[in-house]
UniProtKB/TrEMBL annotation:
<feature type="binding site">
    <location>
        <begin position="304"/>
        <end position="305"/>
    </location>
    <ligand>
        <name>L-histidine</name>
    </ligand>
</feature>
<dbReference type="InterPro" id="IPR045864">
    <property type="entry name" value="aa-tRNA-synth_II/BPL/LPL"/>
</dbReference>
<feature type="domain" description="Aminoacyl-transfer RNA synthetases class-II family profile">
    <location>
        <begin position="14"/>
        <end position="351"/>
    </location>
</feature>
<dbReference type="GO" id="GO:0016757">
    <property type="term" value="F:glycosyltransferase activity"/>
</dbReference>
<comment type="subunit">
    <text>Homodimer.</text>
</comment>
<feature type="binding site">
    <location>
        <position position="299"/>
    </location>
    <ligand>
        <name>L-histidine</name>
    </ligand>
</feature>
<feature type="binding site">
    <location>
        <position position="92"/>
    </location>
    <ligand>
        <name>L-histidine</name>
    </ligand>
</feature>
<dbReference type="Pfam" id="PF13393">
    <property type="entry name" value="tRNA-synt_His"/>
</dbReference>
<dbReference type="InterPro" id="IPR004516">
    <property type="entry name" value="HisRS/HisZ"/>
</dbReference>
<dbReference type="InterPro" id="IPR006195">
    <property type="entry name" value="aa-tRNA-synth_II"/>
</dbReference>
<protein>
    <recommendedName>
        <fullName>Histidine--tRNA ligase</fullName>
    </recommendedName>
</protein>
<feature type="binding site">
    <location>
        <begin position="65"/>
        <end position="67"/>
    </location>
    <ligand>
        <name>L-histidine</name>
    </ligand>
</feature>
<dbReference type="GO" id="GO:0006427">
    <property type="term" value="P:histidyl-tRNA aminoacylation"/>
</dbReference>
<feature type="binding site">
    <location>
        <position position="106"/>
    </location>
    <ligand>
        <name>L-histidine</name>
    </ligand>
</feature>
<keyword id="KW-0808">Transferase</keyword>
<dbReference type="GO" id="GO:0005737">
    <property type="term" value="C:cytoplasm"/>
</dbReference>
<feature type="binding site">
    <location>
        <position position="110"/>
    </location>
    <ligand>
        <name>L-histidine</name>
    </ligand>
</feature>
Length: 361
């Protein structure tokens, strides 16, 4: 049997498992509208999407994943609660590594249910794990909601918190901003000169770039306001660093985060959500004592994840991407729901990788 036919057949088997769990099969067009959707994927996928222009429909792209179009479909037409499954190819440029496929199959399971988010998280993880069969894979989990709650609770300006929130998925940039806002890194000489110049627009040089003079002036004023704001305290920076350093088996990670929450109450609700998820995972038969939790896990994945995140990896094969990934994306339903929202979580499996690891390709 040809390779693609084997992958499609395995994908159909996995989708049947998801259908048996109550999911309705759905399709998503190969071509998706790029203008709105690209902003939702984040920097990595934006740079790897195949985008083309259509005289009537504007910019279009080959679908880089299924989750965003499925959420869009549900928010327009879906009833509550709902479970969906799908199977098909996705497309992403791989210019940094031409050995990686730029087209591969995904099979997914998505849950839209506001009744019990912790139970829905556990349902998706456990079902994905069972659908992978007896293959020995390392499971990694995290929770973007804890770090986001910590940033939201910082004693600093909204502008600074918004900047940190935007760059949670870019660890180096996030670290640089945290150092700057806490006064750990000095203000660059060029910026210091700009801020002390009473009339920086009177430089006598031609204007370069797309920003108007009004936009440039507004940006300079924002930088001046930021320079007057007191630094984020060393104590709060230390608490953010303590959260990011949490990497334990799930029960021990919960205890460490509870200890941190004593000094940073802003994360208390998110930590309670983690506790509820652990109990729900136990009810699903998942061995939580052996399950890894890393507070910084998921920071280089899809930017629409805002809560529970997970991935399953082949031990001893660091050259391979995760065989399965998933997470919670409540905020995405808010963006695409035009005022409506519903808690949602999902995950995908790559049947091609599964077959490769099983020696069937």
């Amino acid at each position: 049997m040809p390779k693609k036919a084997k992958i499609r057949a395995r994908g159909a088997e996995i989708r049947a498992i998801f259908e048996a769990a109550g999911a309705n099969p759905v399709e998503a067009s190969l071509l998706q509208p790029a203008e709105v959707l690209l902003d939702l994927y984040g920097e990595d996928i934006r740079g790897r999407a195949y985008v083309t222009s259509d005289a009537l429909r504007g910019e279009q792209m080959l679908r880089p994943d299924f989750t965003v179009p499925v959420v869009q479909m549900h928010m327009e037409h879906g009833a509550e609660p709902a479970r969906y499954t799908y199977a098909g190819e996705v497309f992403r440029r791989q210019e940094d590594d031409p050995t990686k496929p730029n087209e591969y199959a995904q099979v997914g399971y998505e849950v839209f249910d506001r009744e019990n988010p912790g139970a829905a998280d556990a349902e998706v993880f456990a079902l994905i794990q069972r659908a992978l069969g007896t293959l020995e894979l390392r499971a990694a989990t995290g929770d973007m909601g804890i770090l986001k709650a910590a940033v939201a609770g910082l004693d600093t300006t909204d502008r600074r918190k918004n900047a940190l929130m935007r760059h949670i998925w870019r660890p180096r940039r996030f670290r640089a901003l945290l150092d700057r806002f806490s006064g750990r890194s000095p203000v660059p000489a060029s910026r210091a000169a700009l801020l002390t110049n009473p009339n920086p627009m009177a430089h006598g040089k031609p204007q370069i770039g797309l920003r108007s003079q009004a936009e440039i002036s507004e940006r300079i004023e924002a930088l001046r306001e930021d320079a007057k704001a007191p630094p984020i305290s060393d104590g709060q920076v230390a608490l953010i660093e303590a959260i990011l350093s949490v990497r334990e088996k799930l029960p021990f990670a919960l205890e460490r985060l509870r200890d941190i929450a004593v000094d940073m109450p802003a994360i208390t609700e998110a930590v309670y959500c983690l506790k509820d998820r652990i109990e729900a995972l136990k009810e699903q038969g998942v061995d939580v004592d052996a399950l890894e939790f890393e507070a910084s896990y998921g920071r280089t994945s899809m930017e629409y994840y805002d809560g529970f995140v997970f991935g399953l990896y082949a031990e001893g094969r660091p050259d391979l991407p995760p065989v399965a990934t998933g997470g919670r994306y409540d905020a995405l339903t808010r963006v695409l729901g035009q005022g409506r929202e519903i808690p949602a979580v999902g995950g995908v499996i790559r049947p091609g990788l599964l077959l490769e690891l099983e020696g069937a390709l």
